[in-house]
Design goal:
Largest sheet: 4 strands, mixed
Helix content: 55-70%
CATH topology of the largest domain: ProC C-terminal domain-like fold
Number of domains: 2
CATH superfamily of the largest domain: ProC C-terminal domain-like
Number of helices: 9
Order of helices and strands: HEHEEHEHHHHHH
Distance between the termini: 20 Å
CATH architecture of the largest domain: Orthogonal Bundle
Radius of gyration: 21 Å
Number of strands: 4
Structural class: alpha/beta
Length: 193
């Protein structure tokens, strides 16, 4: 298992020697499998895995490329394994992970607003975290699309008003723009020698 930061790992793997019967798992986010394969030679398998900090809690997505049943069995007790078909798909999902800090910042903004309105931190944070967890769970198990869920509001109600205000402010478009910039950065990092 290659589990070091990419700037160290890129140099380190050049010195490592593996046999053709070794199964290698790469955890370096921005180092492509082809770069690793060129450095270490032929192995039994070479799999890229993208775990996130949440696996310490036994939750969250774990990206696997290419499909490898043994690697899936190793990581599935730690979270939800998601196998993709190409390295480009790995990069797209890795880009989404850049939303961790903005998400926590969003939760903090909402919590700070609750505090300013007279709620305690404990009450506000507990409500906010549970509220977003419940919405995520509904999205996960729903038989309708996310846009349909977004439009499940009472006409003229508070959800419609909030949605329109955020849309008018370009909030949702900013997410796509940000993810495109992050993806370009991920691609650039993977193309470096």
């Amino acid at each position: 298992m290659i589990a070091v930061v990419p700037n160290i790992g890129s140099e380190l793997i050049k010195e490592l020697r593996f046999r053709s019967d070794h199964n290698i798992i790469n955890l370096m986010a921005t180092v492509s499998l082809s770069t690793i394969a060129n450095s270490i030679g032929e192995t039994q398998s070479l799999t890229h895995v993208v775990p996130l900090p949440f696996i310490a809690l036994g939750v969250g997505p774990i990206v696997i490329y290419p499909e490898n049943k043994e690697v899936d069995a190793l990581f599935s007790p730690l979270g939800k394994t998601i196998t993709v078909q190409t390295e480009q798909q790995v990069s797209v999902l890795q880009s989404i992970t850049a939303l961790m800090s903005p998400y926590y910042r969003l939760l903090d903004e909402i919590t700070q607003w609750g505090l300013a309105e007279g709620l305690s931190y404990e009450s506000t944070m507990s409500y906010v975290a549970t509220f977003f967890e419940a919405m995520s769970h509904k999205a996960k198990v729903s038989s309708v699309g996310l846009n349909d869920l977004a439009n499940e509001y009472t006409p003229g109600g508070i959800n419609e008003a909030a949605l329109k205000k955020l849309e008018a402010g370009g909030v949702y478009a900013a997410f796509s723009e940000t993810l495109t910039q992050v993806l370009e950065r991920v691609y650039h990092a993977k193309s470096l020698p």
